[in-house]
């Protein structure tokens, strides 16, 4: 048995430890988001001249170059492009989730507040309740040693201020809303199929009822039938709750079927933007046309037999070609394309395209 004085000293030491831990919890507790969509014309997200660069000086690599985007409350926007074009970097930059090696300039206005200049407490609140991310590759995004019910409940405990019992109940309800029985709350990620893990990611994204969801390739590595189920699930939940959606994919057909508008990205820049169906059916930029023709189309046997591809590889961001970055691969490039980069210009039907062929 511990002698009396020693026991008192031990209790006093334990009290000091608990006090320090309590102070740490207070300091790191994120503030409430409480955002309201009050900006002009219901605009929720506005990206202005966003540039993301890795490294410094002559070794700097531009991953995103002068991107401008807007997304209204309750609207859906698709972002398409090949691997390496900067789609995921752009998505992570919206919530400042990039590593310290990245330098961000420009503005990312979420409900009128600039995410790039927010202090840490405010930024944490935005990441929990203002906007949520459905990350690419659910198995890597989920914690392998925690039950999925605990992982879905965590945002409610950390940000929502819910009790443990209320958070567990809400987690079970969210899993049921995305098509998983409440009994699966006790399962570990490795015990679920790929489609089920993706549903868990969607439930986590919905936990704090965000205004914006960023879905980065939400159907990666899933078979066609499960892809369709996940896409319909996202589409239904977004429409039902009035959430704005930014969905990233290399498949224009998926985005045209899911989103209101579509932006095409190449070598870190937006090269075309407009109504999703119009861009998919008749892209104004040759890169957009190549993407739309890369997949077979329903009702078009010829496209199934010989889908068109695009020769060459995307350029190295550290050594972009002069002029239009797409011109070495472009089937309709002019001489001037090798010298003059093209700004976005009106291309009809509410669209813009960065191509000399739509000049005037």
UniProtKB/TrEMBL annotation:
<dbReference type="InterPro" id="IPR017871">
    <property type="entry name" value="ABC_transporter-like_CS"/>
</dbReference>
<dbReference type="GO" id="GO:0016887">
    <property type="term" value="F:ATP hydrolysis activity"/>
</dbReference>
<dbReference type="Pfam" id="PF00005">
    <property type="entry name" value="ABC_tran"/>
</dbReference>
<dbReference type="InterPro" id="IPR050388">
    <property type="entry name" value="ABC_Ni/Peptide_Import"/>
</dbReference>
<dbReference type="InterPro" id="IPR003439">
    <property type="entry name" value="ABC_transporter-like_ATP-bd"/>
</dbReference>
<dbReference type="InterPro" id="IPR027417">
    <property type="entry name" value="P-loop_NTPase"/>
</dbReference>
<feature type="domain" description="ABC transporter">
    <location>
        <begin position="45"/>
        <end position="292"/>
    </location>
</feature>
<dbReference type="GO" id="GO:0005886">
    <property type="term" value="C:plasma membrane"/>
</dbReference>
<dbReference type="GO" id="GO:0015833">
    <property type="term" value="P:peptide transport"/>
</dbReference>
<dbReference type="InterPro" id="IPR003593">
    <property type="entry name" value="AAA+_ATPase"/>
</dbReference>
<keyword id="KW-0813">Transport</keyword>
<dbReference type="InterPro" id="IPR013563">
    <property type="entry name" value="Oligopep_ABC_C"/>
</dbReference>
<keyword id="KW-0067">ATP-binding</keyword>
<dbReference type="Pfam" id="PF08352">
    <property type="entry name" value="oligo_HPY"/>
</dbReference>
<keyword id="KW-1003">Cell membrane</keyword>
<dbReference type="GO" id="GO:0005524">
    <property type="term" value="F:ATP binding"/>
</dbReference>
<protein>
    <submittedName>
        <fullName>ABC transporter ATP-binding protein</fullName>
    </submittedName>
</protein>
<comment type="similarity">
    <text>Belongs to the ABC transporter superfamily.</text>
</comment>
<keyword id="KW-0472">Membrane</keyword>
<keyword id="KW-0547">Nucleotide-binding</keyword>
